[in-house]
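Recall the central idea of this unit: under ordinary conditions, the amino acid sequence of a chain determines the structure it adopts. In this exercise we apply that idea directly, starting from the sequence alone.
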Amino acid sequence: MNRTPPTGPVPAHPFTETIEEPSAVLFACVQNAVRSPMAEALLKHHRGTAMYVDSCGVRAGQLDPFAVEVLNEIGVNLTRHRPKSFEQMEDGFFDLIISLTPEAHHRATELTRTMACDIEYWPVLDATIVEGTREMRLAAYRQVRDELRRRIEARFPVDPEPRD
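Accordingly, the structure predicted from this sequence is:
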């Protein structure tokens, strides 16, 4: 019997399909002090309680006051954030881990050996390495904030289009 393959797009396999609208998202960076807590707060502000959002670091650092200040400028409160490491996470189930640094991406990849979830890598500037005046440093933190906000709004639209 001679069979010709069907034409048109091949449906995605259910185990390899990317989760478009995750119910639980984890942001990860090195110390959970700047980038990942900013991303967590921005997504919570953007989407409210539509999904569970948390953040962690490869190790726990100290919350950076510049991160608090630049989020406060846009009406997002970060003062209650307490940095934590992957090991200190209370909830271990996420549909999506977004790593913001190479070190966090490596750790997130290790987690997928025991957890079924998607991983996305969003390399983001480390504002803590910028030197100069207070205003120059704040400009770097604002750049990180704005980049995270742009990516979050693109990846997690408020009114996702219906799927076919």
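The chain has a mean pLDDT of 86.
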